[in-house]
Amino acid sequence: MRKAFSGIVSLSARSFRAVATVAATAAFLVGATAASQAAAKDAAIVIDANTGKALYSSNANARRYPASLTKMMTLYLTFEALSKGKIAKSTQVRFSANAAAEPPTKLGVRKGGSITVETAILSMVTKSANDSSTALAELLGGSEANFAKMMTAKARSLGMSNTVFRNAHGLPNPGQFTTARDMATLGIALREHYPQYYDYFAQRSFMYGRQRINGHNRLLGRIKGVDGIKTGYTRASGFNLVSSVAVDGRKLVAVVMGGKSGASRDNEMARLINAYLPKASRRGGGALIARTDNDSASQAIAKVVLPKHDAPTPDAKPGTVEAIVASAAPVAASAAPVPSRAPTPKLAVGADSAEPADIPFAQAYAGPEPSQQIDPVNTASLPTGWVVQVASSPSKSEAEAALGKTATQARAILASASGYTVPFRKGGVTYFRARFGGFETQTAALKACSALKKQRIECFAVQQ
Predict the structure, then answer these.
(1) Could you give the angle at the alpha carbon of 435 between the alpha carbons of 434 and 438, nearest 5°?
(2) pTM score over 0.85
(3) Which tens digit of pLDDT belongs to each residue from 403-453?
(4) What is the pLDDT of residue 309?
(5) Is residue 96 among the annotated active site residues?
(6) Percent of the chain at pLDDT exceeding 70
(7) What is the mean pLDDT of residues 278-305?
(8) pLDDT band of 196, cuts 50, 70, 90
(9) 84-88, 346-350, 430-434: lowest mean pLDDT where?
(10) What confidence tens digit (pLDDT) does each residue in 150-192 have?
(11) Would you call 68 a catalytic residue per the annotation?
């Protein structure tokens, strides 16, 4: 009996050790996979803008999701239209239902409303407004889909051979991709071809009515010589940043993609600028490569890296545009439609009627990480975004009505917040969360919610 018991104990110990070994191995593999996935987002490049020489490169030609860096091309085509007199800064940009329905970050213009082209530009370079991007795309391209073809065609004409655009804002689409090198080319092109509009990228804030809207680029004013350009973030892309620097005749364009947080991305960009700006050339009086007309070496580089002048978009030849897009790369499956909702449950004020594992708006996008593919409320350089939720309903109109009522009742509390709805699925029903975004910290969101509750408005703060 004692032997038998001893054998059982021995067998149990061996079994335990075997299970423990398997568990440890599995944990290691999971950790290694997660680490490799995180590392797979990383990419960076530093270009001497006077010579076109790459001073630093890491995964610069690897495909990455551009996120809101996409808006750089939307703005490029906007500047092109301005320079050719097709539109003016005062031209009204009308917001369709499609534009008005874009998820945050957004300006919050309602369907049928309009703003000027200049306001749309400012909202994109500061707030990274997705609704403004779509509205401009529809103005310039007739539709967002056609504008995306124009964007890709323009990318090809600028030498961005590894970039495909599917939308004007950068919200997740697995068929939309770029490289750090291509983004550097676009950054140089913006400054080279449209210096008369480039100062928009240095804008830290602007007034929208009585509201001051602050920008996301935290390196402006922090690093000497930084004068733009654009930030971006989705869960799939990580934290992205393109920066332009000019100090004492030396000029750089640098790209960092796939940062783990806004702060770490900004710190990496600062490190690269500090390390490589002293190594940059002053040749040609500090002009960017496409303007160095008296420098034969730089002219030779410009022929390869960037056209001397703005290259036209073949938007008058749809067949040509289609061919360019088709030859770029395999495209992803079309977005799956959001299933229709059942109009049964009533409005739930404040708390969700769903379990934590509900499906967000990004389910409409095909591709990896469907539950994570949406810009947070505070996109770009902020590592987190906090929102205040005031209602959840199977009726979008009821959710929007809750937003309107709350905004009116608590105008002072929510003066700097923007209201929006987010669909999600639960038990075969599509619900709509009514939320106010724009809170930089948990403390700010909790403080706002506490003030709302004093006015008998049920709410809770949640991280987007």
Answers:
(1) 160
(2) no
(3) 888 988 898 888 767 777 778 777 778 888 888 877 778 888 899 999 999
(4) 55
(5) no
(6) 67
(7) 48
(8) very high
(9) 346-350
(10) 999 999 999 999 999 999 999 989 899 999 999 999 999 998 8
(11) yes
What distance in Å separates the CA atoms of residue 49 and residue 291, rounded to the nearest whole number?
10
Q: Among the CATH numbers 3.30.70.20, 3.40.50.11740, 3.30.360.10, 3.40.710.10, which is that of 39-328?
A: 3.40.710.10
Catalytic residue among 68, 243, 298, 393: 68
Catalytic residue among 41, 71, 127, 154: 71
For residue 128, indicate whether it is catalytic.
yes
The strand pair at 386-393 and 348-349 is best described as antiparallel
What's the whole-number average pLDDT of the chain?
73
Q: Which residues contact 268 (CB under 8 A, 6 or more apart)?
A: 44, 256, 259
- Locate CATH 3.40.710.10 in the chain: 39-328
Structure tokens at 412: 């002072």
Distance of alpha carbon 159 from the chain centroid: 22
**Is residue 144's pLDDT more than 70?**
yes
Catalytically annotated residue among 123, 128, 244, 393: 128
Check whether domain 348-463 has CATH 3.20.20.150, yes or no: no
Taking residues 121-138, what's their average pLDDT?
Answer: 93
